[in-house]
Amino acid sequence: MFAAVVALGLLIAGPAAAESPVALSEELASDGVYVSRVRTEIDEVALEAAVQEVRSDGLLLVVVAPIDPEPDGESFARRIQEAVEADAALIFMPDGSIESYVIDELAPARIRATEKAEAIADPARATLAFADELTSQRTAGRPELIGQLIMALVLLGVTIGLIVAVEQAVGASRRKRIVDRSRSRVGT
């Protein structure tokens, strides 16, 4: 009984120990994918094809599906990205969530890309969606609130201009009546 518990412990500790970023860097260097033996729900061949497609587009991406990322998913992703010197690391966590870490140039799109990947159940398709969103050029648009504020300021300026014009017209009309009255009194 004791031997079975020790053997089970070694079997479980084996994959976790092998999942250190340094240990994985060699395997990731060849095809960019590591899937733990225990993660049978992930099609490693499809994931490798997705990573190769992303890499052919110029993004050095690595994808890892560990069983025990230490100390947490985000730190693990960062350590993997740095160990492999990849542009981005995408981690499929055992609980079904996704973590990522990217180089500084891609950082503005990381959260958006990770959320897009999490919305897709298939890891291969999620990988492609992550890479697509990560590298898409977002046009810097004006937020809706800023547009509304600018419109309000323009309307305020037009309103003030109209008020000033009406006030000047009324003032000119009054001055003309006063001048006309004083001329009519002087003439009488």
Describe this structure in words.
The protein has 188 residues and is α/β, with parallel strands linked by helices. It folds into 2 domains: 15-135, Roll (Diaminopimelate Epimerase, Chain A, domain 1), CATH 3.10.310; 142-188. 65% of the residues lie in helices and 10% in strands. It has 7 helices and 4 strands; from the N terminus they run H-H-E-H-E-H-E-E-H-H-H. The chain has helices spanning 2-18, 21-31, 44-56, 73-84, 107-118, 123-135, 144-187; strands at residues 33-35, 61-65, 88-92, 98-102. The chain has a 4-stranded mixed β-sheet, with helices on both faces. A hairpin with a 5-residue loop joins strand 3 and strand 4 (98-102). Helix 2 (21-31) crosses helix 4 and helix 5 packs antiparallel against helix 6. It starts with a helix and ends with a helix. The relative contact order is 0.09. Mean pLDDT is 84; it is low at 1-17.
